Structures are given as structure tokens and as C-alpha cells.
């Protein structure tokens, strides 16, 4: 049985139906949180919530599109209704987008990636922060990427959005430290989730693995461990910063 250090806490996780978000939802619930698992994939959410319940945890599903401000406002209200208050949030939902050079990048693909990966994080925090102020404080983790600090060819929109997430994280942290709200970002390298496996062949995945000094892709659980540390009171003096979980990728 995991330490129940998130007992009495209510936590929103976006993109919780799959990959990294599903692992974060499971760890938060195992550590005692009431988890509000949100995603656009209703069936995936039902599976994640059922797995959490089977393991003895508490989770509620809420279908919401992070790129729509009213949906994010309603998600926070749902969390307050289910949990009494909002204490923790992980803005994790994200998409990869087209893989083409900047000079050929489709404008509609740019807009879609920015609307999910950057607008979605802003809309999340826009409504989470007032709720956390009402709760007396809180902790937010935004899931960025190694591509929040370095470039990657063919991924201009994704790289721009993730750099934006890191900047937004710093400003929100500075502005809301007096409200006892901490805001941090994490930067995973390539993680073995459906985001990759849905779109890439095994051969390409192996090629990506070889880019890491660790010689492999990361796991969702390895990202979740860092996210949950940053959410926890053990990280009480950590705010406004960006934390890598990258198998040495950006050390090169
Ligand atoms: P994933 O397995 O594809 O999971 C992402 C989830 O977000 C999916 O369930 C997806 O639903 C959902 N989603 C997509 N658009 C949404 C929207 N507008 N509103 C709400 N939910 C939405 O991806 P992952 O690898 O776990 O990625 C999670 C986060 O980690 C993303 O922010 C990603 O950029 C970041 N990240 C991933 C990696 C990696 O290598 N995997 C590396 C660095 C950072 P659908 O399946 O229906 O689209």
C-alpha cells in the first residue's frame, strides 16, 4: 500500500485516458487523492476509472476538450462538486501534430497543436488557480517535454507550444506564489506511450530510443514519479521551474 500523502486532496488530470496521464491518475489515486480524470476519449476514461476503483482508489471521469475554455471552467466546477475543493492539477493532455518542416507546415496543423498543447494549459490554469486560491493553496504541474528546451526537426508547432508552456509556467508561479500555489513543468524525453506507438513503426521507436544515453525510451510511471513528487508537500520550496525526466537526452 502506497503512502497516503494525497489523502483529502482532489486532483484534476487532463489527458488521463492514456499514457502518461493514466499513470499519473493511477499513482495519485493509489496515494489517496480523489482523482478527476479528464480526456476527450470517454471509453479510455472509463477503463482508467475502473482500474483505479479495482485497486481501491477513487476517480471520477469527465469528458472535456482542453482547447475549449468553457469546458475547462466546467471541469474545475465538477472537481469542486465531487471533491469539495481543488488542490492539485496536472495539465497533461497533448498531441504530436504533423511532422513536416516549418516551410511546409500546414497552418491548420499549427493552430490545432497550439490550441491543445498551449491554449489547453492556459485554460486549465485559468480556472484551476482561482479554485486553488479558494482552497487556501495548491500545486500544478504542466506536462511539457524536452522539446520545451531544445528543438526537433519537423516539430515546429510542438516545440513552440512546449517552449510556451515553460514560459507560462514561470509567470503563473511568480504571480501566484503569494496565494500558496506552486506551478512547475516537467520535461519528459521520448516515452513509450500510444502518442508514439500509434504513429510510429517499431523501427522508428527503436531509433528514438537510441537517441537517449540511457539507451531506451522512458515509461509513463517514470514521468508520474516526478510529477507526483512535484505535486507533493515534499516539493514545498519548488516552484516556477522545469524538471527533466529524459534519460540524459538533453545532457548531450
Ligand atoms: P497519449 O498516450 O496520446 O495521451 C494523451 C491523451 O490526451 C489521449 O488520451 C488524448 O486523447 C488526450 N487528448 C488529446 N487531445 C485532447 C484534448 N484536446 N482535450 C483533452 N484530451 C485530449 O500521449 P502521452 O504520450 O501520454 O502524452 C501526454 C503528455 O506528455 C502530452 O502533453 C505530451 O506532449 C507529453 N509528452 C509526451 C512524450 C512522449 O514521448 N510520449 C514526451 C514528452 C512529452 P486521444 O487519444 O483521443 O487523442
From TrEMBL:
One Pfam family recorded for the sequence: adh_short_C2
CDD domains the UniProt entry points to: SDR_c
GO molecular function, one term: oxidoreductase activity
Alphabetized UniProt keyword annotations: Oxidoreductase
Family in the record: Belongs to the short-chain dehydrogenases/reductases (SDR) family.
Protein name, per record: Short-chain dehydrogenase
